Amino acid sequence: MTNFMKITSLLVSAFALSSSPAFSAANDSSQSPAKKGATLAITGGKLLTVSHGTIENGVLLIVDGKITAVGAAGSVAVPKDATIVDAHGLTVYPGLIDPDTTLGLTEVGADAMSNDLSEPSDEIMPHMHVADAFHAETELIPVARLNGVTNAVVAPGTDDSVAGQDIFIQLAGRNRDAMILGRDVALALNYGADQRRRGGRGSAQFPSTRMGLITQLRQSLLDAQHYEADRNAAEKKSDKPAADKSAAAGAKAADKAADKASDKPFQRDLKLEALLPYLHGERPVVVGVYEAYDVESIMKVAQEFHLKVILNHVTRSQEILDEIAAWKVPVIVGPIYELPRANERYDAVYTLPAELQKRGVKIAISSGEAGGPGGAHTVRNLPYAAGFAVGYGLPYDEGLRAITLNVAEMFGFGDKLGSLDVGKTANIVLANGDPLDVRTDVKQVYIDGIAQPMVSRQTILRDEYSK
Amino acid sequence: MNLHLSSLRSTSGLLYLSALAAIPLCAQQASTSAPPTDLVLKNATVMTASHGTIEHGVVWVHAGKIAEVGATVNAPANAVVIDETGKWLTPGIIDPHSHSALSNDVNEATSPVTPSMMMIDAFDNRDKALYQALAGGVTTELLLHGSANMIGGQAVVIKNKFGLSRDAMLFPNAPRSIKFASGENPKRVYGSRNQLPSTRMGNFEVMRQSFEDAKVYMAGWDAYNAKVAKKDATAVAPKKDLKLEALADVLRGKLYVQIHCYRADEFLTEEAIAQEYGYKIRAFHHALEMYKVAGQIAPTGTGIATFTDWWGFKDEAWDAIPWNAVMSMRAGVKVALKSDSNDHIRRLNQEAGKMVHYGGATEDEAIRMVTLNAAWIIGVDDRVGSIDPGKDADLVIWNIDPLSTYARAEKVYIDGDLFFDSSAPGFGTPHFNGAMHSAGGDGSDDEDEDGE
Fold this sequence. Notes:
Chain A has 467 residues and is α/β, with parallel strands linked by helices. Chain A contains 13 helices and 18 strands. Chain B has 452 residues and is of the alpha/beta class. Chain B has helices spanning 2-22, 128-134, 184-191, 200-229, 242-251, 264-277, 290-297, 324-330, 348-357, 363-368, 372-378, and strands at 38-47, 53-62, 65-70, 80-83, 88-91, 93-98, 138-143, 151-154, 156-159, 177-181, 256-261, 281-286, 303-306, 335-337, 395-398, 409-414, 417-421. In chain B, the strands form three sheets. In chain B, strands 1, 2, 3, 4, 5, 15, 16 and 17 form an eight-stranded mixed sheet that branches. In chain B, strands 8-10-11-12-13-14 form a six-stranded mixed sheet, with helices on both faces. In chain B, strands 6-7-9 form a three-stranded mixed sheet. In chain B, strand 2 (53-62) and strand 3 (65-70) form a beta hairpin. The interface between A and B is large, with 47 and 53 residues.
């Protein structure tokens, strides 16, 4: 409590200094929005467009939070009344997007009450919606934003084989509704040794082995298909009140019809229903898996049910990279900091992004540290993970793309985010150098075309104790 | 994950044993010729860590020591000369806080005071973590007891000569260090068993009581020694007690005290207790809130070995800020960066690079935090940590500026001998081609319940 009061008082003094009246919640960092129709022009910077190369001495125009022009100086007409941001000497690039985080689901790692990561009562939990737990006011978001991360996927913890449904967020906004750009954008699956958690091998409870986990998953997907058939049949019945015992319905439907006859409504099963969009291939399933043999096992199931797969991790699958490429699935590769096993070469994981990209795989890179769930406190280090991959052979442009456009495309935001292109959301970062280098300082972050105050709980502490 | 790792561990252990049975021991090590008596590395950008950076610099190594460094050197004509044009050359990276290669025996968490535990007894010189650190340019490590206990065990200092025997990897005549801890870890470990200490009040009282016991023990020995000096035939030697003897050595100033400590108030309490009992604290480790009291701690001469940007993993890391290291340095505190992690130890050079970003350290100041200042924490800064004549030739060749994200260690020399060469086939370890072990875990002392 003392801590809280202390920080609150620090915050108050910071707010007083910031001359911005808009601070009412931790992440409502939007300054008074620009006047409707006003133009913001970022001029003179080196533009890393991601989609169409680098423009030295570029001009970027922003109106109502959208990019309206991108080009070299002279090729873009800057309106007379535009507000000019001089970016000479700065690098200008699209806001970074982290494909695997737990932002808003955790505050202090060791403090259980500040964590909403995993629901441990069952392995199959597709009806857990990250949107229901996302804490928009988390102190972690401004910290990540300061290093140029403007969007992220938030996924549950990794204890369950079907952990729940992800959200896609923007790292600024007045409240949860303003920050969640997409609800239930993907289903988080995990497969490996970690999910046999009920005592693991030798436990009296099912599932205690990989066989158990896979069988349980397959059965759940079958149950969902069966459920859908039942539901459809029930809907049909409710359309035609007279009992129709003809062809397609079958015995189960007959039971349902009997229920209907007694006016008992069809009972929804939220768990099974949650799986349906993914069984229809409408949205991606993000499969967290490390070992080659586990990748092969879980892909068998995914293919059997025609799931739209994004692989996550694959850090111990070096021997099946060609096979992964042949599946034509995108891969969130890493953490690049995952430790190689004994008797592997030291760079066995460092070189993975380059090796996958070389094989034509669309890759994304996340900020997670070795062994854990998606990044939270580490999200600010996202660009360095991509830089590390570049250090070990990934072409530079692909490194930047793996934390911007590729992520946007994997999660259905490719038309809105991830590059400096006309029509896209103006999530833009200005830095004093190469965005992937640890020495680079981010000078300004724009989200929806609005300059974000470069303030976090940490800068407030820094400034307070620098006096 | 733990289950999985331990199963890996036993597998590789078996592999190792069977390999041992099949092949004579000497075959475990790659055959290698002796290093040249005189070695000259020329045309590199030399970051000396002590006296700036020399463009197109030359380093002459003679018999494992640095003989000369500068724009030119006076090496003998028969010296082996390697042209390192375009490369960068630094002193070996030094990690003043590691729990690598300790067979997962990091904490003797059965009592809050265990000063007679010797980390050397758990040292596994074939742990893969050593190799992975070597490939990141790490040449010296302080292997510390964990943070479960207020007073833990005595550290071992190693040179990362991966592939040599256990004894050959020990840093010769390095000062002895002992690990203390404070804050959440001891109170969690013992509090969860309903034992003392369960609070910070308990933590510090356990320490004070330990030193009271040590004082009585020392007095007994002093009286005995006085009698012996006077040739008093009635002198009876007190019982030797390893625990009290170690604590007495703290009070006698024979051990460097390395304290795991996060919070500003705890630095002040630790300094007050040290003053009360008459010992010096060499360094606070983690020290995430040092920026709050750096001006007050600087005059004590205590240094810090800190993380760059880890935060929020527990309550006492909630006020961590990435500007801590540079702010503390500017206030006059000797600052080193450390890993406390089998992961971060592989890229301490980049952690140093972050200090340019967070607080505007110069490249010189940044590289010093993972070389010379880290050597000072361990007490070996007169022997390693910078490129100066007379120092051990522990050197790293980098593809580019080591503070960059894209830096890779290409060659690592220790005592003038090549221990890592990324261009070599296989592991790239001229002195090792056997089977590595894995202790499992991530090598942190904050891992899991018992601060594993």
